[in-house]
Design goal:
Layout (H helix, E strand, L loop, with lengths): L1 H9 L9 E8 L10 E4 L4 E4 L5 E7 L2 E8 L6 E7 L3 E3 L2 E2 L27 E5 H5 L6 H5 L5 E6 L3 E6 L2 E2 L3 E5 L2 E2 L18 E8 L3 H4 L6 E7 L7 E11 L4 E11 L3 E12 L15 E13 L3 E15 L18 E17 L2 E17 L7 E15 L6 E16 L9 E16 L3 E16 L14 E19 L2 E12 L3 H5 L1 E4 L4 E4 L7 E13 L3 E25 L2 E22 L7 E14 L12 E12 L3 E13 L15 E14 L2 E10 L24 E9 L1
């Protein structure tokens, strides 16, 4: 393995001599050159911009098929696929003006199409778009995407929910590597900072064909920050201030590139006091501190591309236990608290073989989690170490048929170092093999299909004394699963697109579900695992209909998700250690619902936008009871204006948003009903130019009228603790 990695990093030095080049001119529909257009080759992590005459040039490129993305604000994105030949290649591009959001290249799916060409509907949002909403955390920003919500513990801990499924049923990918951070715990957050992240893609529905076990409910795929354009150096500083938590988020980044080498680094620090509810009280020990560091180095030449990235994330999290007690603005956490250290190392390498290529991702994640009850000695201390590998071979294109063959695997160990055990010491091994094809015809229709086989083997060691809390029997289980997907996209008219998808997914039971035997902190339940649990297996059907013209966008998504052997906790009717006893059992279940949205831009009021979206999901067990942790229906309305003030304030915007969350009465046996509420949010921002000083600024007022409310998926709901009150967020961003 060491020898193989060295070969990838060196990039087959014997083949470095070729200097293939793509050049051309980017113009508008009137044949005028466009200055500053971004041209980017995602596979090579390499880009440039057009000069004063609209010309561009990319050199040192591989022979074979290459995708180029052309982006410029106010114009529609274009993705050009070009077969690079030796030496000189010419490619001229014309961009059309647009008033709607730009189309984006989707990295999380198999063939990296732009969204308008993609068979599967994937939500794509830049982190800048989410930050402009003024949310305090990354997961709060994600929860503004239709179909996505969060299970939260105050403002510090959030777990994504996609169409009613969360925890181990939703995979999170960062730097091309699946994040493994003890997702089984309700109080275990993402451990991912938005600094150094370019965008996020959301797959809503089973994605086991590409990602294996645990992608039963969907995938969050975070794309890292791009490297600098060739032969440039860039520095960036951003600062955000939060009124409610007296919080601060600071970030400094540096990046530079040559024709072949690229380097990037970014450091961030995030600190918050206890959050304040409507009325002025603070929720004790919801404070937290986060340190994040990201760096990367890349190399590309005419036959090879490789990027090595590293992310270190340190979290110091207070755990709210006393509700509204001591009132302080301190940012130093008190007991009980969590200390989480996360290391993520990834290596992505692409080897170009003329008409085909090999794409290899290697990843290592080390998650070190400690919980401190009443002293600096950790009662709970777990180390989860995960090595991932993912190799995809893109076969030569045959006419309009594209195909991929791949293997994936994972080796994972969990080790306990504290006196308290939530799960035993264990080893998990995954192996999967898959193939997928994409066929296009008539320039407006596409069919995509795939098949996959997976095996997961879990072995754990015995621990504790039989009959007492904390005893874990040894487990040695193997889980197999076959999965398939079939998708169809068709342009019914020039502006109308239909997508139909049918896919299966699976999730092997996790260690907590197999082995639990004790009080689960935060839920006040004594939980008993079940070593005989079967694999969860689902089939989901999706339909997406989209209409787009120059002044109107409309979409409707519907889904039906049937899950066999759905795993959940059920009360046994007994009490142990003064806590109700819950055991893990299985039952078939179904979830159904969807999202609908509209974006209207009236002509000739080019400065005005109206956006509205509605989302709903219902989850039921086979016996008719409702599933737990199903988000309430939500309706969001936004009015957005765009403007410019002379020559000193450009790309200005102002937004007014009304978000209505409805009553949630469809609850499981141990949940309580939740009342609806409406929040009002304001936003203002743009680019300020004062001489040679240029910076972006945004000012947001969230929950502007200081509404007192309790979200249905808040883990503080059972204690009657409201969510965050009014929060004013000021952000500035300087390109130094």
């Amino acid at each position: 393995m060491k020898k193989f990695i060295i070969m990838l990093l060196l990039g087959f030095s014997a083949l470095l001599h070729a200097q293939n080049k793509i050049s051309g001119t980017v113009t508008d529909s009137s044949n005028n050159p466009i200055i500053g257009v971004s041209i980017y080759a995602p596979e090579l992590h390499k880009g440039t911009t057009t000069d004063l005459e609209g010309r561009y040039s990319l050199t040192n490129l591989p022979v074979g098929v290459l995708k180029l993305l052309f982006e410029y604000v106010g114009y529609s994105n274009q993705v050009k696929t070009i077969k690079v030949k030796l030496n000189q290649n010419d490619l001229n591009v014309t961009l059309e003006q647009t008033i709607f959001e730009m189309d984006a290249v989707i990295v999380s799916t198999a063939f990296n199409k732009i969204q308008s060409q993609n068979v599967m509907k994937v939500e794509h949002k830049t982190i800048k778009e989410l930050q402009q909403k003024g949310t305090a955390t990354l997961i709060e920003g994600l929860a503004t995407i239709p179909g996505v919500s969060q299970v939260s513990t105050g403002t510090s801990i959030g777990k994504p929910v996609i169409r009613g499924l969360s925890g181990n049923r939703v995979l999170v990918y960062s730097q091309g590597v699946r994040m493994e951070n003890q997702q089984f715990g309700d109080e275990h957050g993402l451990g991912l900072n938005d600094a150094g992240v370019e965008s996020v893609e959301v797959i809503k529905g089973p994605a086991s064909l590409l990602y294996g076990s645990d992608a039963l409910g969907g995938v969050l795929y975070f794309n890292p920050e791009k490297f600098a354009d060739a032969n440039t150096f860039k520095a960036n500083f951003s600062q955000k201030l939060f009124s409610n938590t007296l919080g601060s988020n600071s970030s400094l980044g540096l990046k530079t590139s040559t024709e072949s080498w690229k380097f990037i680094t970014r450091g961030s620090f995030n600190t918050h006091s206890d959050y304040r509810i409507a009325g002025g009280d603070r929720v004790t020990n919801t404070r937290y501190n986060e340190t994040d560091f990201k760096t990367g180095i890349g190399y590309s030449d005419s036959s090879f591309s490789s990027v090595l990235r590293y992310n270190y994330n340190k979290l110091d999290l207070g755990i709210p236990e006393d509700g509204i007690a001591e009132q302080t603005s301190s940012k130093n956490t008190t007991f009980p608290r969590q200390g989480v250290f996360n290391h993520l190392l990834s290596l992505n390498s692409v080897i170009y073989l003329e008409d085909s290529k090999l794409d290899v991702d290697l990843g290592y994640v080390a998650n070190d989690r400690s919980e401190y009850e009443d002293s600096d000695v950790a009662g709970l201390h777990m180390k989860l170490k995960t090595f991932n590998y993912d190799a995809k071979y893109y076969l030569p294109k045959m006419g309009k048929l594209e195909s991929i063959f791949g293997i994936q695997g994972m080796h994972q160990t969990n080790t306990n170092l504290g006196e308290e055990y939530l799960i035993p010491d264990a080893t998990t091994n995954d192996f999967g093999v898959f193939g997928t094809i994409n066929y296009e015809w008539d320039n407006n229709s596409a069919l995509q299909a795939g098949l996959r086989f997976d095996n997961r083997k879990i072995t754990s060691t015995e621990n504790g004394i039989i009959g007492e809390e904390g005893y874990f029997r040894a487990v040695d289980r193997s889980f197999d699963s076959f999965n398939a997907s079939l998708g169809y996209k068709m342009d019914l008219a020039d502006d109308l697109t239909l997508r139909l998808n049918l896919a299966s997914g699976f999730r092997a039971p996790n260690l907590a579900e197999l082995t639990s035997n004790g009080v689960h902190e935060g839920t006040n339940r004594y939980e008993i695992g079940n070593s005989d649990l079967k694999t969860e297996q689902n089939v989901q059907s999706d339909i997406n209909l989209e209409y787009n013209n120059s002044h109107l966008e409309f979409f409707v998504n519907g889904f039906y998700n049937h899950i066999n052997n759905y795993i959940y906790t059920s009360p046994t009717g007994t009490i142990q250690d003064n806590n109700d006893v819950f055991s893990y059992i299985q039952n078939n279940a179904m979830l159904y619902g969807g999202e609908i949205g509209l974006h209207f831009h009236p002509h000739p009021l080019d400065w005005l936008h109206y956006e509205t979206s509605f989302e709903t999901v219902t989850g039921e067990k086979q016996n008719g009871d409702y599933l737990p942790l199903i988000p309430a229906n939500n309706w969001s309305n936004t009015i957005r204006t765009e403007f410019k003030i002379k020559n000193w304030f450009e790309a200005g915007y102002a937004t007014l948003n009304f978000t209505s969350t409805f009553n949630q009465k469809n609850v499981s046996g141990f949940e309580t009903h939740s009342n609806g509420y409406t929040l009002v949010n304001l936003g203002f921002g743009g680019t300020v130019k004062l001489g040679k000083t240029v910076f972006d600024v945004n000012l947001n007022g969230n929950n502007l009228f200081d509404k007192r409310y309790i979200a249905h998926l808040s883990r503080l709901k059972n204690d009657g603790i409201p969510n965050i009150g009014r929060n004013i967020v000021l952000g500035v961003n300087f390109d130094l």
